[in-house]
Design a protein that fits this description.
Heat Shock Protein 90, 2 domains, 5-stranded antiparallel beta sheet, alpha/beta, single chain, elongated, 7-stranded mixed beta sheet
Length: 321
């Protein structure tokens, strides 16, 4: 793998660029107050609003908007096709905003179903929030409101969100978030394997051994068909990157955790781009498609990379449902 950099962009000014705003709220009534105020302000300014929230919140907003003029400027986005992997969200927002805007000002409301995610998914959603500032640092101006329910979420999740949003909606007022930190993202350590993992050391010429190892493990736990083929493609991409960029060799560890089959790859390389795999490759792009493909094929991808420890990539594949 190549070298990694997590340089933080400066907080955007409130009247230009990408406005990334945190909205901590307590319960459904406060959610509606903040979201409807945001939507009504957008309507007054002839701005479109794209809403990506869980189904119960979408139903609440649709009911509140029914019969109002503001409803005409609101589009509810279908996030089901993205699955549970936050690694797919940045390109999705880029696509949605690009298609909706066409020269018009755009706002967004984005809230994940935090009460339904695993600790690993929660960690990656936190990283996604940090990456949004980087991904849209040079984009045309648009405004994203991120509601967080303080009545449901763990304090650590709220604190992580406060560090990642330059702006804050509090008590009906929009303003700078003084808890925002202009520094590299603080990754939590990857949780240890819940069971003794099976290990395979691989190098050039042994990619078939990687595929055979994962096939045996997946089959043993009921993974087959298209889902197994997708995992094999993703695993082959990661192992090939280890061989090409990570010192020519690596170690694969596999285990089952809850309903997920985990395939963890480790090598001595060091990733450079914090957005690797999170931006859609361009038609004329040379290389850089491997981890993009991996994000599309896996239910969750966790990447940890430092110069001292090398690179660890965990691929999560759901065994049930």
């Amino acid at each position: 793998m190549s070298e990694n950099s997590t340089t933080r962009p400066e907080a955007p000014a409130q009247d230009s660029g990408f406005r990334h705003e945190l909205y901590p709220y307590d319960g459904d009534a406060q959610f509606l107050d903040g979201a409807m105020s945001f939507i009504n302000d957008a309507h007054a300014g002839s701005e479109l609003v794209l809403v990506a929230v869980a189904e119960p919140k979408e139903r609440m907003l649709r009911t509140e908007l029914e019969g109002t003029e503001a409803a005409e400027g609101v589009t509810f986005l279908d996030t089901a096709a993205l699955g549970r992997n936050p690694g797919r969200l940045i390109p999705a927002w880029r696509d949605w905003v690009s298609k909706a805007a066409e020269g018009n000002p755009v706002r967004g409301i984005s809230e994940s179903a935090w009460n339904e995610v695993s600790p690993a998914e929660s960690s990656e959603f936190g990283y996604h929030e940090w990456l949004l500032n980087l991904a849209f640092a040079q984009s045309p101006a648009w405004w994203l409101l991120c509601p967080y329910d303080t009545a449901v979420l763990e304090p650590a999740a709220i604190e992580s969100a406060r560090r990642c949003h330059p702006l804050l909606l509090s008590e009906g007022a929009h303003g700078p978030n003084h808890s925002y930190l202009d520094e590299p993202f603080a990754f939590p350590a990857l949780a240890p394997a819940v069971d003794t993992p099976q290990e395979l050391f691989y190098q050039r010429g042994l990619l078939q051994a990687v595929r055979d190892h994962i096939t045996a493990c997946g089959t043993r736990h009921g993974l087959d068909g298209a889902r197994l083929r997708e995992l094999l493609i993703a695993a082959s991409e990661v192992a090939a990157n280890s061989i090409k960029h990570g010192g020519g060799r690596g170690v694969l560890r596999t285990w089952v955790e809850g309903a997920d089959l985990i395939c963890e790859f480790h090598d001595s390389g060091h990733l450079q781009d914090p957005l690797v795999g999170r931006l859609r490759p361009t038609v004329d792009q040379v290389g850089g498609r491997g981890l993009w493909l991996v994000q599309q094929l896996c239910d969750l991808v966790q990447i940890r990379s430092t110069a001292e420890a090398g690179t660890t990539i965990r691929l999560h594949t759901r065994l049930l449902g």
